[in-house]
Amino acid sequence: MAGSVFARKEKIASRPKVKTGCTTCRVRKVKCDEKKPFCQKCINTGRTCDGYQSPFKYFISQRIIRAPNDGIKSNDVLPPIRPTFLGIAPQDIDLLSRYFSTKTLFEVKLGYNEEARQVLLASLTDSPLRHAVLSLKALREDLETSGDGPESVVQQTSSFQYGLQQYNIALRSLAFNLSSPSSSGLKSALLCCQVFISIEQVQKNHGAMAQHIIRGLRIMHEYRARPTFVTPNKLVPAYHRQLPSLDIFIIKLFAAPCKFAEPPATATVNGTTLSAGLISLLQQPLGSHGLRTIAPDMRTKLTSIATLTIEFLSKVSQVDTTDTALRLLLEKATLLKSLESWLNDLEIVLTTIEYPASEPLSVAFLRLFHLVLKIVLLGALESSPDLYDRLRPENDRFQNIANNVGERVKAYIRCIGTSSGRGERSTLR
């Protein structure tokens, strides 16, 4: 008897530790089949699959890791930054709504009041979100104080360092809280993701911003934030109800007017009016039919599709019958065809223009906008096992363009600084 007990213990001890799989299987210490979004083992045994570990766990960029965690201790060196969100005052909502995007620096209304209200209300009790809001507030105030010239690419002010410190704390706190995801934890993750996207945009880190977008949308898919089809004719309700609509937040972010679609600043060099060194970066054609008129027109068409996409997502959130959902699938197919048609039109337009080198930044931002809409639509009402495989090429393309945009924006800013040194006053917002 004692020998058999010892043998069982030895057998259990010799089993490999469960290091992957869903949270439920990890707690039960059983092998998970790792099916997404919910493992089949949990479903077959009538258990609730609590999903997988946080995608934010290892997403602390090297630049943030190097930021001083405890180098700012004295209140004497800090700007007057205080946690002012103890109450949800209308002015607080308006302020955060404006801080969500750097595009609001040139008086753009993004319609983020509801998102700002949700974030501020949750930040009263949610520690990661509170640190994220303080980070965005510090970084945005620093941007508005210091400007967006070349020095903004390598900020070293105490306000900027404080913002990075708070961002680092928010990332670590969120990763810890999501080690065992719950409904409240998922809501916190998606609200934090909104703020993280804005933080990276303020820092002009478009590549990191794209990573947050991709991972946040994956959370919505994995945890079924909206009703979906699990089979061609079987609609299942949202697994976690009333999660923040991160996809709509992102669409609004890209739908706002883009500074790069406007005529660039000019300067006089050797008696000739040129775009002062910006031509090599923006590759703005010199003819009368350049992208300064084409890009805004293409953006108008894409923004119209974006408006219809937001309306479509709102309908999906409220769908309650299979027949209604099937009609929405037809609407989804129509929107995807509109996106394909828009892209074909853009390529036709671009073939009529000769570039000195690569495409203008205005076109790169349009491509990002187009891909965001396509990725969001492909994931709507969809929970098939191969969804992530089908989304991977689009996500990779989105990430690559965002990485390139980030480098070119910083180069653009440095070039503006060179031009400003010759007497040109210019802004990038």
TrEMBL record:
UniProt keyword list: DNA-binding, Metal-binding, Nucleus, Transcription, Transcription regulation, Zinc
InterPro entries xrefs: Transcr_Regulatory_Proteins, Zn2-C6_fun-type_DNA-bd_sf, Zn2Cys6_DnaBD
Pfam families the UniProt entry points to: Zn_clus
Matching CDD domains: GAL4
Domain Zn(2)-C6 fungal-type: 21-49
Listed GO MF terms: DNA binding; DNA-binding transcription factor activity, RNA polymerase II-specific; zinc ion binding
Name of the molecule in the record: Zn(2)-C6 fungal-type domain-containing protein
Organism the protein comes from: Mollisia scopiformis
